[in-house]
Amino acid sequence: MFDEARTRKMPVKRPIYLDFQATTPLDERVYAAMTPWFGAGFEAGFGNPHSTTHRFGWEAAAAIDEARKAVAQVIAADPRAVFFTSGATESNNLAIKGVMEAMLSVKPELIVPVTEHKCVLESALAMERRGAHVKWLPVGRDGLIDLDQLADLITDRTALVSVMAVNNEIGVIQPLAEIGALCHRKGVYFHCDAAQAFGKIPLDIKAMNIDLLSISGHKIYGPKGVGAIFMRRSRPRVRFVPQMSGGGQEEGVRSGTLSPALCVGLGEASRVAAQQMDEDRRHVRRLSQRFFEGLRQAHPGILINGDLEKRYEGNLNLSFPGIDGDRLLSGLRDLAVSSGAACASATSGPSYVLRAIGRSRAESLSSIRFGFGRTTSIDEVDFACETINHVIDELGGLKSGDRNQ
Ligand SMILES: Cc1ncc(COP(=O)(O)O)c(C=O)c1O
């Protein structure tokens, strides 16, 4: 299959973007939907969606309501339980701090896997400083949590379990339905950081018993600076203290004037993502398989990080044993890739996620995350593959054996 690469038709534009977990380019349909809302002057939609006394406000509010419905539909939620925020960082802060502040005096415990995104870890630590008791849940070598271990950690003093859907560094998909069923049985709220999952894999808040869910716009070809939080309003109603004081917009969940352009953008990105989720997933699966086969044929010692099956295929995190990650990255200037999460890539320590799944310090430092997306082409993947194989050879090849996981 990889031989097709030799018959590449078009020269590829460089650098090739393979960092779709960090962010995604705006989809043209999203841009088109947003433009009426960010022009200049009175011709553009500029109304304050919270103005209830005139047409300018009503029109903006109506557009936002449509967007809310589109977001809600992706997770099979009631639109009235979806609230716009500035992104998944804010939604995660809101979920963890909001719930824990409300529950602190009755149920001070919070359970968080060690491989969560920094904004979840830091929010948990912030609540620990305010008296919460954080229980850190380890993950296996496959990056997945163990349900029995989770069950053992839950007590009648546990308020919240927060587990991400798809890991941003290694792409593994946690067993959401099983976690939700367990939390539901034990009367514990389940928050899911779905920044890397929303619009990419099927999510159903009812079937998965999810009480709170965080969404980001810019991971699904939508605009940056907008996201959403789903918060269950009944059976059970999530007890929660708002974290932003203000005019009580978004039913008091999140004060502040909403941006119609950004909300409409997130709505359209959600609609498109839902419509072509299967197609998008087939595309990235095909690309990542082709990419990995091309690398492994030449260099069988390359390791995949995280479970081989339970994963979102658009994220392939690989370790190159014996190769210095910085030297590898500097040889890959034609590829826009990342050695880990965008928020942590300025710090050059080994990734805490890779360390948590048992990779050595050296293996962690020799790892790169390759992200494929809706716009990635086979030609780009083949070019990336050839480039990497070439750079590995230049650096003297891989050093250790053929261990796969
Ligand atoms: C898993 C996960 N959670 C949260 C975030 C933060 O999202 P945002 O950039 O919308 O604040 C990200 C983005 O890097 C992420 O990957």
Quick tags:
12 helices, binds pyridoxal-5'-phosphate, 405 residues, disordered N terminus, alpha/beta, seven-stranded mixed β-sheet, Aspartate Aminotransferase, domain 1, 2 domains, 12% strand, Aspartate Aminotransferase, domain 2, three-stranded antiparallel β-sheet
Question: Could you characterize the architecture of this molecule?
Answer:
The structure is a single chain. Residues 1-7 have low confidence and may be disordered. The protein is an alpha/beta fold. Helix 1 (28-34) runs antiparallel to helix 7 (260-275). It has a 7-stranded mixed β-sheet, sandwiched between helices. A 3-stranded antiparallel β-sheet has the order 9-10-12. The protein has 12 helices and 12 strands. It folds into 2 domains: 2-18 and 277-394, Aspartate Aminotransferase, domain 1; 28-275, Aspartate Aminotransferase, domain 2. It has helices at 28-34, 55-74, 88-103, 118-129, 147-153, 176-186, 260-275, 277-298, 325-331, 352-356, 361-365, 378-394, and strands at 16-17, 82-85, 109-113, 133-137, 158-162, 189-193, 212-216, 227-231, 303-304, 315-319, 335-336, 367-371. Pyridoxal-5'-phosphate binds next to helix 3. Catalyzes the removal of elemental sulfur atoms from cysteine to produce alanine. Seems to participate in the biosynthesis of the nitrogenase metalloclusters by providing the inorganic sulfur required for the Fe-S core formation. Belongs to the class-V pyridoxal-phosphate-dependent aminotransferase family. NifS/IscS subfamily. One of its GO terms (biological process) is iron-sulfur cluster assembly. Residues 16-382 form the Aminotransferase class V domain. It catalyses: (sulfur carrier)-H + L-cysteine = (sulfur carrier)-SH + L-alanine.
